[in-house]
Amino acid sequence: MNFPDAATPISTCAAPECADCSIADSIHCHFGLSDLVHFYLISLPVFLVGGAGILAVGLLPLLVWIVIIVGFFNIVEIRVMCSHCPHYAEEGRTLRCWANYGSPKIWKYRPGPMSFMEKFVFIAGLVLVFGYPLVFFITGGTWYLMGLYLLLVAGFYISIQRSFCSRCMNLACPLNGVPDPVRRAFLKRNPVVGRAWGVEPPGGGSGTKSSASLRS
After folding, report:
1. Under 8 Å CB-to-CB from 150, ≥6 apart: which residues?
2. Torsional class of 207: left (φ above 0), alpha (ψ -120 to 50), beta (otherwise)
3. Which residues fall within 8 angstroms of residue 35, CB to CB, at 6 or more apart?
4. Tens digit of pLDDT for each residue in 95-136?
5. Confidence of residue 214 (pLDDT cuts 50, 70, 90)
6. How many CB atoms lie under 10 A from the CB of residue 49?
7. How many domains does the chain have?
8. Residue 38: inside a domain, yes or no?
9. 101 in a domain, yes or no?
10. 3-state secondary structure of 186
11. CB pairs under 8 A, 24+ apart, for 113-118?
């Protein structure tokens, strides 16, 4: 697996190196295999239990859920949320982040906040993905699986908020929990992103290392 070089600033960053970054411990600009494994460990149990509850009712509903999951996380979410992330500006045709590793970058990079409609579609998609199994837990009468599923979903949300969202550089995401002072510092160090958020870099210069590397 290929991940960004932890010693090299991301494409949108104006800094020549990461060594002197004052927010390196507060925001996560580089992802590695340990992040991906961590994400899988907290997310896969949710989908395995959800799939078991749906399969107890029938194979076709499970196939429908799989199509919904793949379509949302690899197409819809990439457009409305991931395309706003600075990581989307990195070289390559696929994402190499902790949540959507390998997803194709079929949309243009669009720094700046998500629109109201994008946020609506994103939240509605999450509700559909994680709410779909509940119908089949109820119709199938698998209450014990439903209880376990709800506990796993709650645990997944709490874990992702503490371990990932609290330091994620995709400031546009509705789930992002990076504190405001860190946000402001990050936007100043990343002029392309900062301008899209209405923040000018110190000195008013472009501040980019290679604007040609950014997706437009």
Report:
1. none
2. left
3. 28, 98, 164
4. 988 888 889 999 999 999 999 999 999 999 999 999 999 999
5. very low
6. 22
7. 1
8. yes
9. yes
10. helix
11. 113/84, 113/171, 113/172, 113/196, 113/197, 114/80, 114/81, 114/84, 114/172, 114/173, 114/174, 118/80, 118/81
Q: Write out the DSSP string of 105-173.
A: --S----SPPPHHHHHHHHHHHHHHHHHHHHHHHHHT-HHHHHHHHHHHHHHHHHHIIIIITTBS-TTS
Structure tokens at 111: 């720094």
Q: Do the domain assignments include residue 60?
A: yes
Average pLDDT over residues 142-146: 95
10 falls within a domain: no
- And the tokens for 14? 């104006």
Structural domain that includes position 161: 33-206
Question: CA–CA separation, 147 vs 151, rounded Å?
Answer: 6
Tokens of 51: 């799939």
Task: For the chain, give the mean pLDDT.
Answer: 89
User: How many whole angstroms separate alpha carbon 160 and alpha carbon 207?
Assistant: 32
What length is written for the chain? 216
Q: pLDDT tens across 179-189, in order? A: 999 999 999 99
